[in-house]
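Intended use. Records like the one below are meant for learning the mapping from a protein sequence to its folded structure. Do not use them to infer anything beyond what is encoded.
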Amino acid sequence: MSFVRLFSFLNKAKQRGKKLTFFFSLSLQQQKTQNSKCKFTGANLQGAYLMKGAFPYTDFSNANLSDTLADRAVLVESNFDGAVLARAVLTRSDLTGSSIKGADFTNALVDRAQQIALCRVADGTNPTTGADTRQSLGCGSRRRRLESTPSSAEGPQVSEADKEAFRATLPVYRK
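Structure written out for the chain above:
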């Protein structure tokens, strides 16, 4: 099925309100010959297989991508504003430059390096699920991380009274 025919099928199915679950994979060779700016705005792509798909500059805003398998997909500079990616598998996927304002990544499987990059731009709350984007991605703050490290000078300090109480419990070997 050609890319244009598949896109036409998706638009017709969306207009009829059907749930879209299908296998969708494009090779990079096909993608270079086709227009890479696709719109899946508001589409229900729950459970879709997007493995090794090339979707640069694609608009997935307000789309339902829950339970999607997008392993090794190229999603460079795509728009995921308001999208639901709950339980999606995005391992080894490239989301460089993507907009994720208000996206929900609850229980999504994302590589650690990709998670750190996404946390730099994560912002907003998902309008559908109410999930905070940073929290659903597992982003933390630098201050909280430093405070939780026991050897950090910036973290909470032990008071002198607690130190003296601890020293009193130590056995004395020499006087």
